Structures are given as structure tokens and as C-alpha cells.
From TrEMBL, chain A:
Organism: Acrasis kona
Domain ER membrane protein complex subunit 1 C-terminal: 597-792
Record domain EMC1 first beta-propeller: where: 17-110
PANTHER family reported in the protein's UniProt record: ER MEMBRANE PROTEIN COMPLEX SUBUNIT 1 (PTHR21573:SF0)
Keywords, comma-separated and alphabetical: Endoplasmic reticulum, Glycoprotein, Membrane, Signal, Transmembrane, Transmembrane helix
Bilayer topology annotation: Single-pass type I membrane protein
Signal peptide: 1-17
Entry-linked Pfam families: Beta-prop_EMC1_N (PF25293), EMC1_C (PF07774)
One BP annotation, GO: protein folding in endoplasmic reticulum
UniProt lineage: Eukaryota, Discoba, Heterolobosea, Tetramitia, Eutetramitia
Protein name: ER membrane protein complex subunit 1
GO CC annotation terms, alphabetical: EMC complex
UniProtKB/TrEMBL annotation, chain B:
One GO location term (cellular component): endoplasmic reticulum membrane
Subcellular location per the Swiss-Prot or TrEMBL entry: Endoplasmic reticulum membrane
Organism for this UniProt entry: Acrasis kona
The keyword Nucleotide-binding is annotated on this UniProt entry: no
Signal peptide: 1-20
Transmembrane segments annotated in the record for this chain: none
Keyword Signal attached: yes
Main location: endoplasmic reticulum
Name of the protein described by the UniProt record: ER membrane protein complex subunit 10
Keywords tagged on the record: Endoplasmic reticulum, Membrane, Signal, Transmembrane, Transmembrane helix
Amino acid sequence: MKYSLILFCTFVCVVNAIYQRDAGKNDWSKEFIGDIKHAAFGCDKKDLLVGSDNVIANINLRTGKITWRRVFESKEVIRRFEYATATCNLITLTNTLRVWDKNGLLIWDDNNVVDAALTEEGVVEVKKEFVRVRSITGKPIYNHTSSEEFTGILKGSPLTLSTKQSAVLVTSSGISKASSVNVEEGHKIVQGELVTATNQGYYAKLNPIDETKSRVVVHSNENKIEEFNINATQATLAFIRPYTSVDNKQQFNILVKHDDQLSLYNRSGLIWSRDEGLSQIKGLTFVELPTQTQAIQGNAIVSFEARLEKQLETLISLARSTVDGLVSLVKNGLKSDYVHRELNVGRDEFGFSKIMLITTSKSVYAVHTNGQVLWKKTFHSIFKTSDLSDVKLIVTNSPQQHDEKPVTPEFVLVAQRGNQALVATGNGLIGDITNLETIDFKLKDSFGVPVENGNNVLVLVSSDNQVIIRHGTHNTLTKQVYFYVHDKPTNSLQGYTIINSTPVPIWTVQFHHPIQSFAHHATKLNKHVYTNTIQHDETELSKYLNPNTFSVALEAPTSSSSDSNVEIYLIDSITGTTIYHTLYESSSGPINMLLEDNLLLITYMYNKPKRYQLSAIELYSNQIPSHAVNVKRTSFILPSAVRTISSTRTTLGITSKLYLLALTNGQVLSVNQKTIDTRRPRGVAPNPNQAEEGLLMYNPYIPLISQSLLTYNKTVHEVSRIDTSPSYLESTCHVVVSGLDMFYIRTAPSKQFDLLNDDFSFSLLVISTVALLVATFVVKWMAAKRELVRLWK
Amino acid sequence: MTFKVLVVFVLSVLVTFCFSQESKPVYNVEQSFDGGKIWSKRGSLNSVGLNRRLTYIPDGPWQIPSDAYTTTGNSLYQIRFASVEGNQSPIMTSVSFCDVIRSQLHELFTLHIDQTTHKLTSVDYIVTVGHSTSPFINRTCSVPDQLRKGNTKQQVRITIPSPVQGDKVSFVGVKTPDQKKKEEEQQNEPGFFRKYWYFIVPGVLMLLVSSFTAPEEGGQAAAQ
């Protein structure tokens, strides 16, 4: 009973949900399909079926919105995507053949299918040992076995299959050798032109005119019948669909995929466009918006006048909003007295408005925290080439909370093209590229070194050990610069320092198993981290706070090849010293790590009972000065596998921390700091002193409580990263979850203790205050009058 | 015959002893005073004994090259461990040269060795000067003559720590549903008296009744 009560308290303490009325108010989500590789116009005039590697979806042809979407497991890749206009059915083949109806409902499926196709007879299903033809509903029509192993379908009509040694013709009566086969080509780029064709005799060619436009020429049986321009270049996929309009004219829809966008055009222009680039986010950085005021420089009279002017403006806006509130109160009554904040792009007083600079595989975006895409630039348009290695974005100039004047955020994009490094500088607010530099050296690494005011100096290191500095000079770097490079072919880490503008190697760590995961501290340690933990017995534990540590996880096979161990190294990036090295036996990946202050969190799979576990390691400084650290550890059982892990961050570090675990079911579970505290007593209930400190009795399970899911009823498929950023309010943190989809939420781990509710009625407050004032004067007058009457009696 | 057996026994013991004391170099220990441009051999890590214990064997007294360093600061002292077999890249580490001088060559090598391949992963190089050693701090120091002449004895300690075993999940104090059910049943189980009161109460009543009636019969018999 006692343990149940404690367990109940554990669950109660960690519940952190939002109200139903708050859903959608401080969060937004975007759904994507991914890199579209397949498309087909549906038999219904408003259907467009598209598919990426493991996603199929139906897009409304009029609006461009997703009607339905099905997401397969990430390891599945769609090899066949065929649509039967006669029956309005779609078949998709990964390792599993699936047949869908027009509403996205699965009719039937089958595993271990080598190849499949839609033919006039039905659905052809080829397995290694036999070929089977089924109707759309799944009813077998006929099947044949063969002594030779089937490897694929060469043609649908007549049905021709390839075996390991030859090609065979398959009919309902049997299998026979095929004499010669003409294999059709699909949509391909032929002689530099993108060509798309239909089976009604129409085909269209897309020819780029300039950097932004292409010319579409539609032919019918070699006769040119239509041509028009579209705003798309670098198209890689195109489909044409002729249709007859209401006024009996022949029209054409051209569906074009260019860069990350899928666009639908007709003769009159663009109908809609979907941007799928945000489904493949590589990097995300939060940037403040510039302040909208400027501190007045001048003598006391000038600044006094400016202050009066500003206060007068504030008074006028307050009066205006009070009147608006009163009007809405009269119109709508007390219940719906609700002031919506205007959507604007400027900085607000609470730091809720920020810009996220996002890099994908082909573009860079600026997305406001309200979900609006402010601008987008493709790497092709910036660097004038598509032949680029991984592009890295570094923010070199960032506004701060207490800036005295507006500061424009600046960023730098660094890429490698052959033996040249390309450095593009851009304006973070509008996306304009202000400078593009080409440097003749082969880039080994590039990074930003933080200097004063939160800015970064760009350091570029070449493979022949040269260093180039941009957005600063060597003199700007007042401290010694250390960095390390991961050499993937040799699986080693090499640490460097810069001496006289030359990188000098200072340490090496050579791993003998592939590195599975890295974890670093956030760019800056929260300066308000409280360094000591005072225990219940009044002893102090001094946290080991070293912002230069990073963590490496390896999966090492054991002598029995079927099993493996997980090894974790915690290394100092300046000296290369191994601070801590631990081994989890009989464990394997996926391994995720988070390094925050003095805490290292690791998720992995424990092979023997086949369960996912979370281990927490807290580091404390030893009393005796040495490199050794005092370590406290604990482990828990997770409800499911984890894709990535992050934590909330606040300005002052007072608010409780939430650790965010992205589960494989598309949800994000928030776990309280107290749940994973390494000092939780095991096997016994906490004594009164421990309970006073807030320690809970150890429980090996981390519960999956629906109220602790940050994504509440939304799903974010294939989460690859969670990024967080503090707002100006201590209670609130921005959280962005991205993967195939994108989800943003403003979360308050300890509830919003420093902010009034949105439905707080300011007008009612004003009315009450005014009414009290009036009542005070009236009562005072009445009291004076009565006193006078009394005196006269 | 006995003598032959004895000779064979002694020879085998001698061979085992010699074999066990055989020292085989596994890693060459090299040093550099100029930021890694020139490396010179300083000693070797040898595998000794049947349990392959690693021991540092210096190649001679520790000497500073005459052109390497005088009395200026800002210098690194770098050590690297290169595999004799050449089957892995050298493992390198650095400290401030001034710290090496101040420690008078009291050095500690902590070797991290991979459990599966038994190859060196990293080396932590600490010189005992009583404070943490960053590899590059702007310091100045002068080299004593004793060190220049190579008259200082190297005192090298080697430690090879094993990785700490990861913490395991504990179920102490956590009850399974069956255990909880059993505990609840035990708590809810009534006491002996409550369970069997319908036997005990009539039995006691009967005893009482019989004890009251038994003396009366005796009294009546006595009266008679």
C-alpha cells in the first residue's frame, strides 16, 4: 500500500500536460511527404497520388493539401508505384506488396515479393519460386511455379519475367521461353530535355530558358499543340495530364518536381506548389530578431524627451487596446474576452518570436516560430552549382536580448566544391547573399568560435593544415582555439590547437569499432548553472562542469559474434584525456546520447531481455584534485525505442528541466529531472530528509503517461532531431521536433509562473479599477454629507 | 631414469621461466619537442610475462636535443605510441613542456586498451605537478643543467584501467503483480479467531456449560 502510494506520487509528480483549449495555440505542425519520386494522376479529377522512399500520399489537385498519407518503416524503400485508372487502385512494392483503394485503405498485402506489376489480368506478384496473378481484391486467378528462380518483371504486357539465366513469358496456360524482349523506358531526361508522355499520344518537353524559367512544349503525335512558360528550373520529374475544361477546351496539367518543390501548372500559370524541403532538415539554429527600438544617445534633455515620447506612445496603445477590449466585451460577453496576439515578425517582449535558420540537403530556410516561412534560398541559386559537399551554416552575428540598437542577424554558408571552399555570407532577416567568396583550398573542417556578444568568428581549416579566419581576425580570438576532427576512414579523432595560424595536432584517439554516436555540450554552458548540489545530510556535491567534454559511443562485438557491448567514452576535447569509460555488456544500438551540464544520458538496447534502457551518469568533482571524477549512475527501462534525445533550456536555469525522448511511435515523451535523478534510494522508501530534498524511491520503469507526451495527439514520423531554445521568460522554452514532419511547441516545464493566462481579462481589470475609484469618491462624498447632517442636528 | 626425468623437469622449468620473462616490444614510445615535426625514439612499451603486462623500457637517459629548447616558453612536449607491427595509427598526446620540467620527469601514462582487439585506444599523459595540465599554456621556464645532460632518472608509472561496468536496472523493492496480489491477500486475510469463530465459540460455550453442570452432579452425588 505504501509502495503503491509512492508509485502513485511518482506518476503524479511527473505529469505535465496541456489543456484541450491550449492545443494548437502555442504549437503548430507541418506534414510532409519527403523527396517525391513517384506520382500518378488519380482517376478522380481531384486526386494526385505521390510517393517518396517510404511514404505514399494523396494530394488534392485543386489545393495541394494532403488528403491522406501512409508512412512505412524507414528501412522500406518503394520500388514499384503503379496506379490503375480503370479500378482506381494503387499498388506499392517495398519488400511487401500492398494494394490500396482510392481512400488509402489497404485491401491486401503480401511479404517477400521480388517484383510486382499491374496488368490487364490483375496484380502480378512475383516471388522467387512462383509467379501469381491476383485480382485487385486479392482473389488468386492463376499461379505457376518454376525450377528457375525469378528475379523480376521485364514487361507487363505480354507478361515477361526475368530469371537468373533467361527471360520467360507467362500466361494463364503456363510459362514459356521468351525469344526477344523490348524493355520500355520510363520518364527520363533525354538529350538534356525532360520528357513526359501519356498513353493518349501526348508528350511534353521541358526546356530551361534561364535560371528561373522553363518552356513547356506539348506535342500530340509529333504536332506542337501548346506551349507556355513555368517558373521552374532543374526539374527532375514531370507528368502531364490532358483534360477537357468546362468550356470544352483541351487543357493540360503539368506536374513538375524541381529542387524540393512539387508544383502544378497549367496554361494560365501556377495552380499550387508544395515545398517538401523541410522534411530533410540537416541543421537548425535559433536566431533572435533584432530589437525594434534604439537607445537614444545624447544629453539628458534629449534622452528625457525621447523617454516621454515613448511612454506617451505606450499610453495611447494601452488606451486603444482597452477600448478594443471593452467593445469585444460588450459584443461577446465575459466568456470570450480573449486578446489574440497579432502575428508579426518583429521581436516581442517575451522572446516568443525567433527565427530558425534551417539547412536541408538543397536549400536554406528561415522559418519564424509562428510557422511562417520567411524566405528560402536554394544552394544552387547561391553557389551557382549543385556539385557541393555537405553545406554547413554558422551564425556569425546574432542579436542579443539587451541590444541597444537593432543588429541584423548574419549567417555564413560553407561548402566544398572539388578543391575549392565556397563561403557565402547572408542576411538572416531577408536571406539576401551579401558576399560570396571562393577559396582555393580543400576544406577539412569549418566551425564558429564564440567571441564577445554571442557572435562567432568563422575558422576554416584545410586538409594541408592551413587556417583561414573570416568575420574576425586572429586578434579577435583572444583565447586559444582547440578543435578536433573525426577521420571516418581510420575511425579516429584528432585534436588540434592553432599556434601562429597553423593547426598543430596535440592528441589522437583511435577507436577500433565504428563510432555510433556523438554528444556535445550546447554551444555555451548556461551561465546560471548552479554548481553545487546540497544533499539531505548537508554535504555538498560539486558538479563536474567542463564545457569542453564530449562523449562517444561505440558498439563493440564480443567474442561470440552474435552479441555486442556498448562502450561509452567521455573525453576532454582539449587534452584528449579520457575522463570516464564505461561498458554496457550484452547491449547494442540504436544508441542516443545527451550531454547536459554534468549529466550524460544514454539510450540503448539490452540484448538479453530485448528491452530498451536509459542510463544516467552524473559526474561530480572529487575532493582530491586529480583527473578522476566521482560518478553516480542509474538505469531505467524505457517503454519503447528512442530515436533521439534532447532537453529543455531556459534563460536562468531555475525552471525544472524536461528531458525529451523521441519515441519510434512518433511521439515525444518528456521525462522530469527528478525521475532520472541518480540519487534516488533503491529498495527502500526515502527517509524524511531525502523526501524533503525531493528524492523519490527508485523505480526501474519510466512510465509512458499520455499527459507527458509533448506532441499530445499529433505524430511526428521519423524524428531525427529535437532542437530547443530559451525564451526571455524563465518559464518557457521553444521546442522544435523535426523528421519527416515538423512540430513546434512552446513548453513550460514548471507551468507558466511568470506569465498571465491568455484569457486574462484586462478590460475587466480596468473596469473594476475605475468602478472602485468612482465608488471610493461617491462613498467619500456620501460620508461627508452624512457627517454634515449629523453635525447640523 | 630418475636422473633423466629430473633433468627434463629442470629444463622445462627453466624454459618456462625464460619464456615468462621474455620482453617483447609492442609499442615504440617517441617524443617531439617541436610540435610534431621531428620525432625521436625515447623507449618502448614491452609486453612482459605470460599475462602480457605492459612495461615501459627507456632507451637510455632522457635528453633534450640541443637545438630544441632553451629558455623560452610556449612549447609543447608530445609523446606518441607507434605500434611495432604497424597495424594502427600512432596514438599521440601532449603536455606543456614547462610542466614536464617542473615534474622532474615524474610521469604517469594511463593506457586505455580496447577489450576486444587488445589494441591501444588512447593515452592519458599526466606529469605530476600538482595541478591540471593543459597542453598549451603560455608559461616560461628554464631547463636545468641536470636535464640537459640527461642525468635525471625517468620515473614512469603505467596504469591500464578497465572500463567501469555499466549500471544495471534494479528490481529490489519492486513487486511483481503476483507478489502484490499475494501481499494484498495476506493483508486482507482475517485472523485465526475471525476465521474459525463458529467452531471456537460453541466449543467454549460447551466447555463452560459442562464445567457448570459437572460440579452440580458431584454435589448432588455428595449430598446423596
